[in-house]
């Protein structure tokens, strides 16, 4: 049988019987392996994923001075591809419960919208920044630990951020050992300098009394860390831990320094 060659021959090789058998085996392999590939299809989060009978989740408590009763935020997650190397935990629905009925309408609205966004799939972490940027025209408040919250919606966004960090959707940039050591050194230096300013015994007594009363107030308010009462809010971590040291504003919580 003659074959017409229309292109320039660049190289050639002689086909052996074993090469022909290997080619036939390779051609037949995809047909037999097709069911296995289809069975191992990775499931991603999308709006057509049906809700299972039970979900795993966590409930977070929000106690704001702007409202009389506490709010409880429950975020339930769905587990995709369980028992495989592609197992993922993704948020599926949100519920907010409280005895206070003043904010009932927007609470119901925000839970339905957030749940719908979660079920769409994809990158849902944008909700955190959008919610944390909501400001209350009446003014914000400081929650436990001295962290400033511009509104209740912003604190709900902070709760969502904490939950997404716990399931691995948001990576929390932790402070290094060197940064922690620097913060501890700065805080110790500030406390030592504050002690030296009180020269007289009466001054020492006043400083100690003021400090113990501040510590008592911090423990009663549930704050996790006590910072000097004269500290101002740090714009980086939104915590009242910014003090003046050597003519430079330094944060005793995150290590931020205005002078670099």
UniProtKB/TrEMBL annotation:
Keywords: DNA synthesis, Nucleotide-binding. The keyword Nucleotide-binding applies. Coiled coil: none annotated. Residues 201-225 are annotated as: Disordered. GO terms for molecular function: nucleotide binding; ribonucleoside-diphosphate reductase activity, thioredoxin disulfide as acceptor. Belongs to the ribonucleoside diphosphate reductase class-2 family. Its EC number is 1.17.4.1. It comes from Arenimonas maotaiensis. Residues 51-164 form the TSCPD domain. One of its GO terms (biological process) is DNA biosynthetic process. This is ribonucleoside-diphosphate reductase. InterPro entries: TSCPD_dom (IPR024434). It comes from the Bacteria. The keyword Cell membrane does not apply. It catalyses: a 2'-deoxyribonucleoside 5'-diphosphate + [thioredoxin]-disulfide + H2O = a ribonucleoside 5'-diphosphate + [thioredoxin]-dithiol. Pfam families: TSCPD (PF12637).
